[in-house]
Amino acid sequence: MRKLLKRVLPDHASVHNNRWLRPLGSTLLHPSLWHLNRHSAAGAVAVGLFCGLIPGPFQMIGAALGCVVFRVNLPLALVTTLYTNPFTIVPLYLLAFTLGDWLLGGGSHFVAPPEITTMAITQWMSAMSAWVLGLGRPLLLGLLVLANGLSVTGYLVVRGAWRLHLMHAWHTRQKKRRARNDKGATGT
């Protein structure tokens, strides 16, 4: 798992050589932001899942700031925010609105989101922003609760999966060691 993540995610040198990120080099090149272990991977997934519900392009900025604060793996957190996209954001926000409305005791009215087919992308983004702001308190509360729930769940799942992987690898090594010892004992 670790090898796959290291192969897919950008490395320390690519950030160091990026001219746009050079002014932030001392902060973004901190070793803990690039180290990949059980803690940093689980924390990065938690940060990415939480920040993925932030509207628009601020997801990546929020995830980067969260990584700097919590000292977790930066590339993994940035990739994790991509679970929200134009296809998933409306259902997630609808879920957040429903959750927030339920927590506030109900009574809010949901308004359908604007359709993208009849307008330019900039007009649609403006209409989406107005739609989100019009949903108000239920949406805000629901987004906070949903983001926290996804974050905690993601953290626990990664920690558990990493532990299962380590236990499986340990058992595999034990079997190989026993097989070698048995082979060596019968061969002499």
From TrEMBL:
Record-linked InterPro entries: DUF2062
Keyword Transmembrane helix belongs to the record: yes
Keywords in alphabetical order: Membrane, Transmembrane, Transmembrane helix
Record keyword DNA repair present: no
Transmembrane segments: 41-71, 83-104, 139-158
Domain DUF2062 per the UniProt entry, residue ranges: 21-170
Pfam families for the chain: DUF2062
PANTHER family registered for this protein in UniProt: SLL0298 PROTEIN
Name of the protein this chain belongs to: DUF2062 domain-containing protein
Species assigned in the record: Denitromonas halophila
